Amino acid sequence: MSTTFWIKAVELILALGILVMIHELGHYFFARIFGVWVEKFYLFFNPWFTVAKWKPGKYVKWFSHGKEMAVAGDNNPNENKKSWRATEYGLGWLPLGGYCAISGMIDESMNTEAMKEPAKPYEFRSKPAWQRLLIMLGGVLFNFLLAVVIYAGIVYSVGEKYVTFADATDGMIYSDSAHKAGFVDGDIPLLVDGKPLDRPDAGSIQAMLTGKEVKVLRNHKDTISIPIPKDFIFQVNKDAEGGQSFLMYSIPLIVDQVQPGMGGLKAGLQKGDRLIAVDGVPTPDITSFSKELEKHKGANVTLTYQRDGQVLTAADVPIDDNGMLGVTKVVDPAKIYKATIIRYNILQSIPRGIEMGWDKMVNYVKQLKYIFTPQGAQSLGGFGAIGSFFPETWNWLEFWDITAFISVILAVMNLLPIPALDGGHVMFLLYEMVTGRQPSIKFLEKAQIIGMALLLALLLFANGNDIYRYFFK
Questions:
Q1: C-alpha to C-alpha distances, 262 to 255, 302, 424, 470, nearest whole angstrom
Q2: Could you tell me which residues come within 8 angstroms of residue 367 by beta carbon, excluding any fewer than 6 positions away?
């Protein structure tokens, strides 16, 4: 397996570990506040054996075997269940999640025998509905707060630096499906459904994919209206599976460095030269230039380039067998176009972090409706799809940015009204608070089983999609 695979795998496991820990800490926090006994607090699942477990003042065990969940009241009956020392803390070995085993509730442990006993004052089921609701919402709340903290930390440490659509004077490059819809490379997005578009962030792209009409500036003079197909978002998702972005900045090929012993050096290219044609074929951007070189592997070409306002040519420039010229290029649009830079102090970064977290959540919620369509089901992905979000080389800034986004996704998905998810428990608690009637233990047990079956099926389906896309597409 490649180095890239292992880098992405480590990034994924590290991110999941952080997110699961924070999520379960949210449940733990509110349970402790309301005096509910947390039997176990585990990072990662531990079927068959546990890597490490610790109960303060009682024991520390490594690589032990035993039951996954505790039985309510199985410890010393005189033990103070409200103390943090009454909890067993552990590390499992399967990095697909974790759990916070709360005494007196129907969860994945399915400890039905304990539920037949009278409710004890330290149990979840003995608490008022509003307290139980906050305990169940704790994980979602903490995941959202984590995203806010990360986003606030990013803008505080590095600020925001971006190029607006208007300042990207060469426009954007579009995917195949975008071309079919009517977009042309070089178009500058202006409006979506009458609302101004500022920059290619997640919100703007989401609006363009799901809107009814996008207006663009073409050739710096014509305003063109492009109707958006109803299934446009699914077409673009297929492009993404093939490595195409819906849109990206049109970046001209400007030489950054010339490598020794390659065609670029023989052509006399220098830092700052802008390559504009290959054998007379215009190459206004990096993508078109690379495509032209692919056609001339192992051959000689004539290059046309700009230097200090002059148009120059270099003949008989050799291209190697891999289609490479031997130059590194400027790829940061902020180094080519006018960039907008915003700096935040610590007080300004907090509301900006909240705004960014909220925008990510709203945009993701808007996309949920597409999951319940045949095209949306095909686009579902599992751990492989999540891992693909991360960069191929280690970059802490990108890692934290992606981790924050996944934290928002985890918060939203956990709120789905499916038994076995936090949202399922919330649904039943809201029913109880509205009607004044608590669902029976038997009903909750059956609902939990059904919910777990649905989640297992969804997990298998999503990861099956990953396997299919990897091996058969």
A1: 14, 15, 62, 35
A2: 206, 210, 233
Which domains are delineated in the chain?
35-126 (no CATH), 132-159+346-473 (no CATH), 172-250 (2.30.42), 253-330 (2.30.42.10)
Looking at residue 68, its pLDDT comes to: 41
**Residue 310 to residues 251, 304, 313, Cα–Cα distance (Å):** 20, 10, 10
Geometric angle at alpha carbon 234, from 232 and 235, rounded to 5°? 65
Q: What is the CA radius of gyration of the chain?
A: 28
String of DSSP letters for 267-286: TT--TT-EEEEETTEE--SH
What b/e readout covers 104-131, taking b as 16+ CB neighbours within 10 angstroms?
bbbbbbebeebbeeeebebbbbbbebeb
Q: What is the pTM of this model?
A: 0.79
Q: How many Å apart are CA 210 and CA 366, to the nearest integer?
A: 9
Q: What are phi and psi of 117, to 5 degrees?
A: -80, 160
Residue 451 has pLDDT above 90, yes or no: no
Residue 107 carries which DSSP code? S
Rounded to an integer, what is the distance from CA 460 to the centroid of its chain? 20
Percent of the chain at pLDDT above 70?
Answer: 92
Pairing of strands 340-342, 160-162: antiparallel
207-251, pLDDT tens digit by residue?
999 999 999 999 999 999 999 998 899 899 888 877 788 999 999
**Strand extents, DSSP E, 319-399:** 327-329, 340-342
List the single range of 39-43, 82-86, 119-123, 340-344 with lowest mean pLDDT: 82-86
Whole-angstrom CA distances from 320 to 39, 105, 148, 304, 345 are: 64, 66, 48, 18, 50
Give residue-wise pLDDT tens across range 278-315: 999 999 999 899 999 999 999 999 999 999 999 999 99
**Mean pLDDT of the 383-391 span:** 79
| pLDDT for the residue numbered 147 | 97
**d(C-alpha 457, C-alpha 469), whole Å:** 18
